[in-house]
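hey team, just a heads up i'm posting the complex here instead of the shared drive bc the drive is being weird again. everything in one block, sequence lines first with there labels, then the predicted structure for the whole assembly after. its two chains so it's a bit long, scroll down
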Amino acid sequence: MINRSKAPRTVDVSLVADDAQLALKPGTATAVFAYNGTIPGPTLEVREGDRVIVHFENRLSVATTVHWHGLHIPFDSDGSPFHPVEPGEKRVYSFTLKPGSAGTYWYHPHPNHSTGYQVAKGLYGAIIVRASDDPIPASVTEKLLVLADNRLNADGSINLPEKHSQLHQFDEENGREGDMLFVNGQLNPAISIRSGEIQRWRIINASASRVYRLAIKGQKMIHVGNDGGLFERPVEVDELTIANGERIEVLVKGTGKPGDRTVLQSLPYDRYINQTRPKDWEVTRDLVALTYTTAKPMSMVAVPASLRRIPALDSTKATATRVVVLSQGMINGKKMDMNRVDFSAPLGATEIWDIENIVGMDHPFHLHGFQFQVLSRNGVPEPFPSWKDMVNVPKHQTARIIVRYDDFPGKWMFHCHILDHEDHGMMGILEVK
Amino acid sequence: MNGLASRCSMASMFLISVTACTSQPGSPSSSASPAGSQGMLAGQSKMDQVLRGRAIIVSNACGDCHRGGSNPAAPGWLAGVTSRADSFPVGPFNTFPRNLTPDSATGTGKYTERQIFNALRYGLRPSVTPDVDITGTTPGQGNFPATPHYLPPSMPWAAWRHMPDEDLRAIAAYLKNGLKPVSNKVIDSQEPPDHWAAAAKEAGPYPTPAHPTASETAVNTAQVMRGRELVIRKDCGGCHGGGPNPSMPNYLGGMTDPTGEFQIGPFKTRPRNITPDNTTGIGRFTERQIFNSLRYGLRPGETPDVEITSIVPGQGNFPERPKFLAPPMPWPSWRHMPDEDLRAIAAYLKQGVKPVSNKVADSEGPPDFWASEYTVEKIGPRPAVPFPTANERALR
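-- predicted structure starts here --
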């Protein structure tokens, strides 16, 4: 997005959602919804402390919103179902990014009952918030990978099955998945790396429901951050699971030789209920070719041992413990009701949420408005603190999180981020006042 | 009881579609007068007893094995299996659910209501047990046979016997007086040399152990105690753990090893933990969600906690795409219980049973969560078709 502002520390941009025809699959034209004419939409790049003004215009024939997923911003700019933008209307989203919020986020529509449809049609984009004191050396090349699967008909149109068809039923149950695994809107793109180089990859899972188990064949990755930015320290891993809605930051080391080729893959991940597990769930899928240049190896820059400090939220300050039971399509046995407040809490309060998934498929849980910290999963303490706005709660497992409702009163959604589940009411409302 | 193997085979029965009744109307049933020391004699009171027996049979899933499910209008209602393939293997032995219609040659026509009562109360096979009042349970005492021949363990008499006398007599009265005889010779069941005596020793205590057992809480409201009676009599523990005996460890705690699985066509059903454990049981479901499971067969993890007033998808809070409990959970029979009984069961499970931590692996099933198997055409209506259907006879 192009910043039209001349004022310091101010980002003033335009965003338009409109119908478009794009060649998602080479040789075909697909009728899509697009932000500023592209899929993904343009990346919003800002810095901590920036005042951001987004002039949004809805040129679609349906109501929509823009939800700034993960950003800690005022309620009336959250783009939740409470603030629909009708066809032909405009809305200004305005917020200032707090210090410490540097990280990778994304934006997408959040209208009541049709988020899945609008994301499937192409509405999603990345947000990068940078810190002035970023500990990763500026010489490290940065790559953005926005993962979003889709399913097209033979004529290139987006496959949205008839209601009550078996495919529709599978979509409702599993969340809609596609066989085309787009990375930045491309199929199987390549990333070039030089032997000895280190790259910083910001990865966003913008899929409606697909969970990716990411691994680079023959290489380890250095996990340095997730939803709310960098960790305190880097962690070397063989693979990383990223649920839909989540983000990760990894350092990829060019440990191969000049001319080598390898691949970023999505390994099988069983998030499914027995009754509707797809037959091909065990397929490993290639996402990105990682090709080494023929240039002679460069000397590898040092990865800092310490990235930043993350103060752990103090559980002794918690004034309430909420129980959030996730079943299939419901939270605490209830479907979403816009006129109901499920939880009410005072501004500034610290609370613990026990999120219990009591059914046989994963539910990636998202809280609007506030970054939280995971205290434990299945009773096992989290090894280190990090900022999250999503926590995937695998089948029949639990997660305990802690959150402080700083700064912004309002009605904040919490929901399963499988978009079909969200659209069918697996969502609740936290009112902070 | 050596019941697990038999239960697995029960499951295999479920998907056997009930074909048109091939039996011919048989010879007139026995004209034996109403038997049993407290049998009713004639007229309206006999009619009441027969209708009561019918209601119990409909709501006790007798037809799930003996044919017809919970629908007295179904072809072959209670007339027994028709094929060698319909056996229930119990260990190495094949047992075959019998013809319960009052046909003299092939059904219950030759037995008195008292013999049927003794079968239900004591598990004694009517064909080899004298027609006498039994006052003891020790072989050789109080008319209890010195060498008892028991019904095979797949027949849940160990649970049924906890019904009050008048209920068991009502069942016998219906079978003998309310059904038309159907000639259907069922293959004789196989049995061990002890005539299932060893299995009968595992039938649990009779009468029911005093409340509360170690598996139960001290909650003893009238509703919870009613629920306890029903859970025992309906043999919930037969699949969910502990049989009809609340003093068993892991009572209602779900299957603990693969022998508790049911093979339903290509799918495995695993009886779940129905104790109120939050993580592994039903602790996070409300009593209304449990009621909705028992009345409508709706999976509580997939059905909102709302009052349901319809069985038409999308209407009256009935889910647009209902997801049903996996067979052989006999909810099509349980649904015929009165509201207060189903609520009592829910109350007992939630309040009267101590939580057991036992995670049972999820059941399998088709993508429609059995919806195509649970149409009114297949399971019959609720309430049941009025008496008498074509399978039944008006009282003379």
